[in-house]
């Protein structure tokens, strides 16, 4: 079977890797560098904790697959830092973890996820790219019969196509009748000097203009901290520089007021352009032989998403709305 995967972010690479392992001949294309768009940056937070028992179950599956990849690569992709969750979502998330049979505990209103930790995203991307060998290629259009048209005028018709192109997905699949949300926003997180150890933290309590915050120890040795501003402050029309300025101001204020163990002067910045958030979730659809995957906060689930989408392609898993 010949498959073209459009997109060399962590989800596209995970899908291509799984397809290759299942005997497919795969060509993975991206307009830019692998892991260069929404998958940019060295680290993310891995967590089993979610508000939906089905997502908790999929995250547990992903955790096992991350371990498998770690063994194959000879390096650990998910650290043992653990995760703590605070704020109003704790009861719902704890109930979901209980329903899914996931180990956790709640102490003084704080949820502890022992399977959580820092995800070595850059290391995982390098491992997958070495196996998949993605190519630079600008895909202009995809047809339901699998014909892939390149911007340089070239075309090919594999047996199946997977579109996991992040911000480029809506334009490619809208002509196929697949409705993928197209509204983007700007986001920035910042690095701060501080102690060398500590768990990852998701805090759902408001902090100044931030509706919620997150933090984890990054591979640079700094603390990566970000937060979620009101939609008006992350709007695409504002531009990346203005949103980063507003984000920096809000995050620095949060650090000064709530994280006195950190130096409040940012020493690094990472920008990305996610879809306007619809919450956690993975979506899959199909048009002819074209398989489409999209969603929010996907990096932590990448091995499981790759497994599911590869199964869709070879025909042994159902295509549905969630993971």
TrEMBL record:
Gene3D superfamilies per record: D-Amino Acid Oxidase, subunit A, domain 2, FAD/NAD(P)-binding domain
Cofactor needs: FAD
Organism: Actinomycetospora aeridis
Keyword Oxidoreductase: yes
Pfam families: DAO
SUPFAM superfamilies membership: FAD/NAD(P)-binding domain
InterPro entries (alphabetical): FAD-dep_OxRdtase, FAD/NAD-bd_sf, MTOX
Residues annotated as domain FAD dependent oxidoreductase: 2-310
Highest taxon, organism lineage: Bacteria
Flavoprotein listed as a keyword: yes
Protein name per UniProt: FAD-dependent oxidoreductase
UniProt KW keywords: FAD, Flavoprotein, Oxidoreductase
């Amino acid at each position: 079977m010949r498959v073209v995967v459009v997109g060399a972010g962590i989800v596209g690479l995970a899908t291509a890797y799984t397809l290759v392992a299942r005997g497919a001949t795969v060509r993975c294309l991206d307009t830019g560098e692998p892991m260069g768009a929404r998958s940019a940056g060295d680290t993310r937070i891995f967590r089993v904790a979610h508000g939906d028992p089905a997502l908790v179950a999929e995250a547990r599956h992903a955790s096992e697959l991350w371990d498998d990849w770690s063994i194959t690569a000879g390096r650990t992709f998910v650290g043992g830092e653990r995760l703590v969750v605070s704020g109003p979502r704790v009861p719902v998330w704890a109930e979901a973890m209980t329903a899914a049979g996931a180990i956790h505990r709640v102490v003084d209103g704080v949820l502890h996820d022992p399977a959580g930790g820092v995800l070595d995203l850059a290391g995982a991307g390098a491992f997958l790219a070495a196996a998949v060998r993605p190519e630079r290629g600008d895909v202009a259009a995809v047809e339901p019969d699998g014909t892939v048209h390149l911007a340089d005028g070239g075309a090919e018709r594999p047996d199946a196509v997977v579109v996991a192109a992040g911000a480029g997905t809506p334009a490619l699949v809208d002509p196929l009748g697949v409705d993928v949300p197209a509204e983007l926003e700007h986001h920035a997180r910042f690095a701060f000097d501080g102690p060398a150890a500590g768990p990852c933290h998701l805090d759902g309590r408001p902090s100044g203009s931030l509706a919620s915050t997150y933090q984890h120890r990054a591979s640079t040795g700094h603390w990566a901290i970000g937060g979620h501003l009101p939609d008006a402050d992350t709007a695409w029309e504002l531009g990346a520089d203005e949103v980063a300025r507003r984000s920096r101001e809000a995050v620095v204020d949060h650090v000064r007021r709530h994280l006195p163990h950190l130096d409040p002067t940012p020493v690094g910045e990472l920008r990305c352009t996610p879809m306007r958030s619809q919450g956690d979730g993975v979506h899959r659809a199909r048009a002819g032989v074209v398989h489409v995957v999209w969603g929010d906060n996907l990096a932590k689930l990448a091995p499981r998403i790759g497994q599911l989408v590869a199964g869709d392609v070879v025909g042994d898993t159902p295509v549905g709305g969630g993971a």
